[in-house]
Design a protein that fits this description.
- This protein is of the alpha/beta class and 262 residues long.
- The protein folds into 2 domains: 196 residues, 2-enoyl-CoA Hydratase, Chain A, domain 1, CATH 3.90.226; 46 residues.
- Helices cover 46% and strands 16% of the residues.
- It has 11 helices and 10 strands.
- The protein has a 6-stranded mixed sheet with strand order 1-2-3-5-7-10, with helices on both faces. A 4-stranded mixed sheet has the order 4-6-8-9.
- The protein is globular, with a radius of gyration of 19 Å.
- It starts with 7 loop residues before the first strand and ends in a 10-residue tail after the last helix.
Length: 262
């Protein structure tokens, strides 16, 4: 059983953990409690083999996550600001990027500041057609501090990332799709269904191979690693897994594979 907290709701459906950020009165803004509960939920789900993927969304139909809770850090010192960013990276943003199961952001409205950074940390993004995305931090005299300056440029390119960050402009879902920021755009009503379409494909594949693929893809964006070398190493290791033996056996026997994630 996955915990449900004060500001995070959880449900397991079709081998998928659906996490809903539940602060609708604050447009689901991230505060310390939300970050802590989100982290604990993901830690708890990590070793549950029956969970094959994660969907993160926001409650209501106005906002995914409309940023960080500004009132919480309005009077922070330099050191407190550094700690805020560092803790966020460790507990949520880097944690999700390197998570062993695919994480899909179901962007159901405003995804601003820390909210867009949360979506950027996810492996796949699906947006409803009313979604608006942006990094407005320079309007407050600060910069994105949860990975936005890095991941946005990786995903949409340096030029567009510069434009979004230095103008603080929001973009709509269609532009986000054109720029490669989101994988799909749907109606609000079809948003979760589209995410479940993706997770149903994921659930039938090898969890061990998927975990490894996430690790290797990320290695290509880590300047301390050589992605090709990591790929060679991890490709070789795949031959020693139970999932490889099952996958090849099922292929040769012309049957559907029954992967156990080992």
């Amino acid at each position: 059983m996955i915990m449900t907290g004060e500001s995070v709701l959880t449900e397991i459906k079709n081998n998928v953990l659906v996490i809903t950020i539940n602060r609708p009165d604050k447009l689901n803004a991230l505060n310390k409690t939300t970050i802590e509960e989100l982290h604990e939920t993901l830690v708890e789900a990590e070793n549950q083999k029956d969970i094959r993927a994660v969907i993160i969304t926001g409650s209501g139909n106005k906002a995914f996550v409309a940023g960080a809770d500004i009132a919480e850090f309005a009077n922070y010192s330099i050191e407190q600001g550094k700690q805020l960013s560092s803790t966020g990276h460790f507990k949520i943003f880097n944690f999700i990027e390197n998570y062993s199961k695919p994480v899909i952001a179901a962007v159901n409205g405003f995804a601003l500041g820390g909210g867009l950074e949360l979506a950027l940390a996810c492996h796949i993004r699906v947006a409803s057609d009313n979604a608006k995305m942006g990094l407005p931090e320079v309007s407050l005299g600060v910069i994105p501090g949860y990975g936005g300056t890095q991941r946005l440029a990786q995903i949409i390119g340096k030029g567009k990332a510069f434009e979004m960050i230095v103008t603080a402009d929001m973009i709509n879902a269609q532009d986000a799709y054109k720029w490669g920021l989101v994988n799909y755009v749907t109606t609000q009503e079809e948003l979760l269904n589209k995410c479940f379409d993706i997770t149903s494909k994921i659930s039938s594949k090898s969890p061990t191979a998927i975990k490894t693929a996430i690790k290797v893809i990320n290695a290509g964006y880590n300047n301390k690693q050589n992605g090709y070398e990591v790929e060679i190493e991890e490709f070789g290791k795949s031959f020693g897994t139970g999932d490889f033996k099952e996958g090849v056996s099922a292929f040769l026997d012309k049957r559907k594979a029954n992967f156990q994630g080992n």
